[in-house]
Amino acid sequence: MSPKIWFIPLILLLFTLVGCSDDEEDAPPPVTFDSINMYSAYDSIPVGVGFTIEAYGYYSDGSSESGIDYVWSSDDPTIASIDTKGKALGKSVGQTTIRVKDRGIESSVSITVTNAVIQSLNISPGETAVALGINVPYEAYAIYTDQQPYKILDIENITWYSTDKAVASFPDNDGIAHTLLEGDTEISATYGGVGLVFPAILEVTNAEMTSLVITPTSSDTVPNGQSISFQAHAYYSDDKVIEVTDIATWVSENDAVITASSILGRFDAKSVGTTEITTRYNGTTIYTPVEVITAEFESLKVSSAESTYPVRINSQFTASAEFVGDISVDLTNQKNGFWQSSDPKVATVSLSGLVHMRTPGDVDIYFTFNGESEKKSIQVVEASLESLTIHPSADYFVGEGHKRKLTVTGHYDNNTSRYLTHNKNLTWKVVYGEDSSINDGEVSQGGEVFNYQTESPISTYFTVEAQMGDKRATSVANFGATEVLQDNEITLNFIGPFTDIDAKSLLYFNNFTLVHAENGTTGPDNSTFIMLTFNEATDLCQTLLYDGFDDYRLPEYAELQAVWTDYDGNDDASYRLYNDKKWAIGQAFWTVDYGVGGEHLLVDLRTGEEGLSAATDTRQYASCVRDVVK
């Protein structure tokens, strides 16, 4: 064969080999399974307590997955067992290690099981009012002798009750109360042979929804490939606002542009364009415009409140992506980004960025997105809690049928402060009070003080204590007998009259020269109510701040007379406004209207007698009113 004949095929073969070599060099490396991150909400649990440990698997390309189907094991199942879905259960006193493994990668956390026993049971919310048709989710917490509240996840062994099943019931015994009829009912539960000392009050009203508000409320811009989350809030005629995001219907008008995710209210951008998000609830439909744009990714940002944290503290970290054009997208809960801890023994991080400080040390909290990672370096220290403070620190007022939210801040010896209100190691209780009927049932483990409706409203005060370890803080709650009465026909809320104790908590003046002592027939026995001149009554209503509102006024004659007509209507001695609605009515009430002779008209809510009037310098009961719907 001629050299020229075989030389040409050889050259072609060389080119082919070189081309194959270049292709192999440009090919991306294979995706590998790199690590597992665990998140444990508890370091120690009592015998019999169960909770779920979370695990997340991470790949070299930045993707992640839930580790719920990985292989779970306990070094000593007789101390703490773990099932195939990551649910741990304390079995006997001791310490063991919970492990999760998949494809040769392993992660672990240590769990201590104590001999603490259940002491009491609390549920949340403690008192609430909702419109008919709204379902109310309840959560139960068991308080053990280690003074720690544990959320009860053992739904098979907890039983939920409603005293009036016609008003609300638990058809699935899952903690969700289904409202069926207007009225009041008591909600309670039993677990481990322990029941509630004081049940929660659920009031189902006939309030009507006045509006549906979606946030964000205006047209929003979303970079292609990202997600946007909406919230829906229903506003009712009784001034209640209820989040209905999880029970509203969410639809994209163009799924090619943006489509609904598995999480209600969240939408994933698919392509550039404009469309609308349709939200439907209770017969109301809201359209929210949204635009998906092409935006160039610039940087990733991870933020935390502090750089140093004490052990046994949880802190929420946030992540955001910055795009060209000053566009920032919150990625904290996005499915296409994931959190990871460089050392789970020091701190673990949940899928939503909640970091639990476990042991002293240095650790990096990473967030990965679009193939890029950003970290926040923190130090976990064995800081000592020096003191607690409760807000509000000054005495506060809680009207009957209402509640007040308290917050607690912990101050540590490394000059840091932490919000501790919902910390599992914080406990609440009543330490002493003026009235023996006030007890721990009025304070939830979430820091809410409840003034439950009773047959005999009282005005009293007592001290609430928050405790964590050996540190304590106190605040003084004033419970008032002053009632709020809603007249649905004329959309008004009436307040009053005021006991002298209530007035000292509510009003800017406290020189009450005359009070009236009720006798148990027209008002609560031995309770004293203030009597005011017309000018004092006018000032009272104009300066009153109560139940979160400050737009009160003295009522008109027709408005107050209508209260007697609607709620009593008989001039006998039944006194239904007191016996049914707990209003003290032992004296006549001021109105803004004038009668014959220039004196102001009065309303007698005992008999409804018309034509009463008095000079402005005499002293009467006072009621304030505000317009619910304007």
Protein model, in words:
The chain is mostly beta strands and about 625 residues long. The chain has six domains: about 80 residues, Immunoglobulin-like (Sandwich); about 90 residues, Immunoglobulin-like; about 80 residues, Sandwich (Immunoglobulin-like); about 80 residues, Immunoglobulin-like; about 90 residues, Immunoglobulin-like; about 140 residues, Mannose-Binding Protein A, Chain A. Helix content is about 10%, strand content about 45%. The chain has five helices and 58 strands. Strands 12, 16, 19, 20 and 21 form a five-stranded mixed sheet that branches. A four-stranded mixed sheet has the order 2-10-9-6, with no helix packed on it. A four-stranded mixed sheet has the order 23-31-30-27, with no helix packed on it. A hairpin with a 4-residue loop joins β4 and β5. The longest helix has 24 residues. The termini are far apart. The N terminus is likely disordered.
Which features would summarize this protein structure in a list?
Immunoglobulin-like, four-stranded mixed beta sheet, five-stranded mixed beta sheet, globular, 6 domains, mainly beta, 630 residues
